[in-house]
């Protein structure tokens, strides 16, 4: 029965995803690689659970790409684009352009015709959004200069997928007349049979209709549906919208991805944007997962086995080309002091979009099977290598650069006697430093973000570029004679590292530290650093007190309540700390970090009632006593 | 018409029975400025310049508070410490408050009998209030007889209503300047001048 077959397929795909994606995550890989791996495992070269139909499933799952572009469109607020225009369109645009040109030229040396060479250039110019974003998030680099530049480039690449999808069939049409006919047969019905100017009118009309409907009509429809309060109808409506646009677009011979992307951009400032995002997102995730699994299943390992050195050589060549272009651009856009290397290493792999583009170009008959197969292998392997690139940067390149930059630091930091050293001068350190400066204390400020250093110098702050986690920088800043060391940096492990170094080597220097959360504070307590401030705890309480005011508390009552909460938290801190010390199972500790922190605080809180704290001003007991006295007196 | 500034200090206003009624009766009257110190300075960080400006803009100052340990709640003391600056309120050049009047409005748990040489508290209210009186003198201000709500823990609701009405009468009399100097000098409590 067809159904059973369908469910059996679903079972295999879902099982493969559920087993291999979490495994990949545990091993520190991004989910894309997990899906690919799952595909490889169930594919013809390992278990052989799926075979020919993987291709069909891939076509179906490509709808995930359409959904993804809709979501990318939704994310693109015009304001954000405008704010980052220089790095998105300048840096991103140049990266795509230059990399495409270089790769195309190299490809033509491999005897590809010019149209295929350009196709290969376009496909391989993109970098993996999934891998890079995950790396940035994990390493806390999203706000770092290199991280931001990488993000801008990725954003531009995401947008450029849309025109790429339009260009590829065009490139394919240069493949010679016989092929052309074959590939156009399916399209020569309906719209495509009309004269050119009518087609153009239809296309303009369709895009105009999407913009008009999205801007002026969609909100009434969504409001009407939202008012029913039936979530599944909203889901149905969202899917209907995307599928409708996709079908309409294919009917007039345009890419469905382009249509949904435009619809997404148009809806980006609508009030239903978040609702749409959360509704579509799981469908996108599953379909893309399915897509990557089917890509994995259709990777032709025979091609690898035939000539492993050629494939590996191509992967290395690709990474080197992309790396060099990125490095040059990074320099050109004033990334300095190792950030240009980080930027280049981050983006040197190929993109998951490449799978989409490869399968699309195969359909459009731009490439024959073998080229497409080799491309898929190169793309997948370059993605698999990208964690190695980051390690290479961290362990080899950046230490060399640091040694080289060291001389600069030595010249820049002028040691002072009895300095107060502030490490990290972002939002947190700035508040600390301004207070000290306002009280006429001299401070030595060290920050490891060159952008910070540049901006704050313009404001007249005297601060030095350097990484305090390196002992030389600390020594030069005068740690040996320091009165106070203020660790206001955001880097979790680095601030502990510095605290430990100072504790061991200069036990007399007082350390004041910013902690990310209670567990960070515990780590400091373990190093005997007692003056620790949790970075957002106090501001949270302040806002909480304001909330109490809005709920009808007198201001002083609200103020006392927040103070009480704070002092109570300080009291239980040592208690919690001892619990934490006993718990040796660090892994569970990490994963339960948040929920534990909240629930423990709240559980402890419930035993107290804040309102009973101010009983000194509560005259209830006196009233009772006095009432007793008078009645006695009356007797 | 004289201008009256009420400096109200109550750290647990939300629990108060009497003062809520008293305040409600007077805070919206013409010519009266109500300044709730615990509401305005929950963190005890008093805006000294602003408070001094308020003082100079008014003719009669009211210190309105419950009686804690025979004294004002901490924030009113903090207010006196900071706002009544040398060179502003007292001293050779400190004449900003000269000629103004001060009225204490106080709610206290003990009955009038308790506040006497034979009573549990051994001293009269006016004896306890000597620091306030002398502070006013030092600032060249005229200290008026206090308005006292005695027995705040046992007082009945209708009595509270009456106190509220009286408080309003007191402030109107002062605002419209209807009392003779001799009456004011003779009276032990302001309460006596209304009945």
Q: Gist?
A:
The complex is a heterodimer of chains A (635) and B (195). With 635 residues, chain A is mostly helical.
Structure, described:
The complex is a heterodimer of chains A (635) and B (195). Chain A is mostly helical and 635 residues long. Chain A folds into 3 domains: 2-176 and 206-397, Na+/H+ antiporter like fold; 413-535, NAD(P)-binding Rossmann-like Domain (Rossmann fold), CATH 3.40.50.720; 555-635, no CATH class. Chain A has 28 helices and 6 strands. Chain A has a 6-stranded parallel sheet with strand order 3-2-1-4-5-6, sandwiched between helices. In chain A, α24 (518-526) links the parallel β5 (510-515) and β6 (531-534). Mean pLDDT of chain A is 78; it is low at 177-190, 407-412, 608-613 and 630-635. Chain B is an alpha/beta fold and 195 residues long. Chain B has 9 helices and 6 strands; from the N terminus they run βαβααβαβααββααα. Chain B has helices spanning 18-26, 37-40, 48-56, 74-83, 125-128, 130-138, 157-175, 181-186, 191-194; strands at residues 4-8, 32-36, 60-66, 101-107, 142-143, 147-149. In chain B, α1 (18-26) runs parallel beside α7 (157-175). The radius of gyration of chain B is 16 Å and the shape is globular. The mean pLDDT of chain B is 94. Chain A binds chain B through residues 553-560, 614, 617-619, 622-623, 626-627, 630, and chain B through 11-15, 38-40, 42-43, 109, 152-154. Chain B: InterPro entries: Flavodoxin_fold (IPR003680), Flavoprotein-like_sf (IPR029039), KefG/KefF (IPR046980).
């Amino acid at each position: 029965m067809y159904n059973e077959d369908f469910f059996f397929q679903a079972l295999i795909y879902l099982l493969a995803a559920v087993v291999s994606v979490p495994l990949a995550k545990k091993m520190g890989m991004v989910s894309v690689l997990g899906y690919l791996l799952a595909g490889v495992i169930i594919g013809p070269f390992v278990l052989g659970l799926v075979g020919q139909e993987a291709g069909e499933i891939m076509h179906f799952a490509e709808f995930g790409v359409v959904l993804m572009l809709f979501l990318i469109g939704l994310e693109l607020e015009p304001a954000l684009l405008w704010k980052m225009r220089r790095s998105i369109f300048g840096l991103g645009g140049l990266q795509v352009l230059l990399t495409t040109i270089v790769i195309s030229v190299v490809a033509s040396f491999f005897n590809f015709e010019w149209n295929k060479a350009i196709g290969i250039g376009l496909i391989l110019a993109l970098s993996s959004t999934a891998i890079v974003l995950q790396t940035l998030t994990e390493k806390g680099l999203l706000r770092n200069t290199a991280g931001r530049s990488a993000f801008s480039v990725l954003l531009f690449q995401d947008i450029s997928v849309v025109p790429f999808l339009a260009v590829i069939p065009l490139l394919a049409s240069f493949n010679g007349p016989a092929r052309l006919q074959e590939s156009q047969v399916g399209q020569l019905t309906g719209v495509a049979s009309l004269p050119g100017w009518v087609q153009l009118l239809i296309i303009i009309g369709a895009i105009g209709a999407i913009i008009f409907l999205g801007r002026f009509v969609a909100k009434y429809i969504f409001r009407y549906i939202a008012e029913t309060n039936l979530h599944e109808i909203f889901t149905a409506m969202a899917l209907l919208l995307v599928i409708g646009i996709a079908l309409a677009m294919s009917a007039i011979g345009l890419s469905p991805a382009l249509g949904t992307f435009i619809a997404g951009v148009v809806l980006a400032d609508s009030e239903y944007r978040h609702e749409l995002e959360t509704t579509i997102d799981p469908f996108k995730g599953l379909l893309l997962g399915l897509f990557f699994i089917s890509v994995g299943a259709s990777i032709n390992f025979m091609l690898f086995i035939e000539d492993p050195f050629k494939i590996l050589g191509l992967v290395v060549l690709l990474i080197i080309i992309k790396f060099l272009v990125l490095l040059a651009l990074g320099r050109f856009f004033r990334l300095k002091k190792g950030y240009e290397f980080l930027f280049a290493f981050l983006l040197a792999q190929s993109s998951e979009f490449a799978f989409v583009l490869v399968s699309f170009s195969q359909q459009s008959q731009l490439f024959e099977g073998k080229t497409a197969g080799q491309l898929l292998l190169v793309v997948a392997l370059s993605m698999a290598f990208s964690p190695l690139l980051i390690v290479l940067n961290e362990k080899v390149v950046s230490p060399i650069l640091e040694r080289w930059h060291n001389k600069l630091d030595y010249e820049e930091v002028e040691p002072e006697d009895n300095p107060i050293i502030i490490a990290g001068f972002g939002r947190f350190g700035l508040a600390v430093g301004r207070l000290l400066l306002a009280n006429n204390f001299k401070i030595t400020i060290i920050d490891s973000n060159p952008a910070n250093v540049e901006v704050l110098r313009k404001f007249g702050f005297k601060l030095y570029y350097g990484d305090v986690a390196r002992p030389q920088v600390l020594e030069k800043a005068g740690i040996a004679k320091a009165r106070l060391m203020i660790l206001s940096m955001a880097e979790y492990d680095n601030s502990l590292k510095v605290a430990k170094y100072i504790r061991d080597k200069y036990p007399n220097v007082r350390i004041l530290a910013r902690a990310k959360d209670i567990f960070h504070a515990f780590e400091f307590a373990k190093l005997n650093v007692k003056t620790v401030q949790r970075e957002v705890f106090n501001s949270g309480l302040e806002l909480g007190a304001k909330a109490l005011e809005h709920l009808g508390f007198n201001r002083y009552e609200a103020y006392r309540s927040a103070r009480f909460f704070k002092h109570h938290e300080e009291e239980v801190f040592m208690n919690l700390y001892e619990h934490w010390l006993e718990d040796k199972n660090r892994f569970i500790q990490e994963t339960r970090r948040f929920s534990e922190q909240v629930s423990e605080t709240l559980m402890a809180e419930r035993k107290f009632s804040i309102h009973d704290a101010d009983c000194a001003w509560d005259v209830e007991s006196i009233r009772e006593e006095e009432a007793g006295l008078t009645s006695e007196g009356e007797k | 018409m004289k201008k009256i500034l009420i400096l109200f200090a109550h750290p647990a206003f939300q629990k108060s029975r009497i003062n809520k009624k008293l305040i409600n009766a007077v805070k919206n009257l013409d010519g009266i400025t109500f300044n709730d110190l615990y509401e305005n300075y929950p963190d005890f960080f008093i805006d000294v310049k602003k408070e001094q400006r308020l003082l100079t803009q008014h003719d009669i100052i009211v210190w309105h508070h419950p009686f804690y340990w025979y004294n004002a709640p901490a924030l009113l003391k903090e207010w006196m410490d900071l706002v009544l600056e040398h060179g502003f309120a007292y001293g050779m050049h400190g004449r900003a408050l000269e000629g103004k009047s001060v009225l204490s409005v106080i709610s206290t748990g003990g009955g009038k009998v308790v506040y006497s040489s034979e009573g549990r508290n051994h001293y009269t209210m006016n004896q306890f209030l000597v620091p306030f009186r002398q502070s006013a003198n030092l600032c060249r201000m005229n200290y008026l007889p206090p308005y006292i709500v005695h027995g705040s823990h046992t007082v009945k609701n209708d009595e509270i209503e009456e106190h509220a009405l009286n408080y309003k009468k007191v402030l109107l009399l002062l605002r419209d300047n209807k009392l003779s100097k001799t009456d004011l000098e003779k009276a032990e409590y302001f309460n006596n001048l209304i009945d």
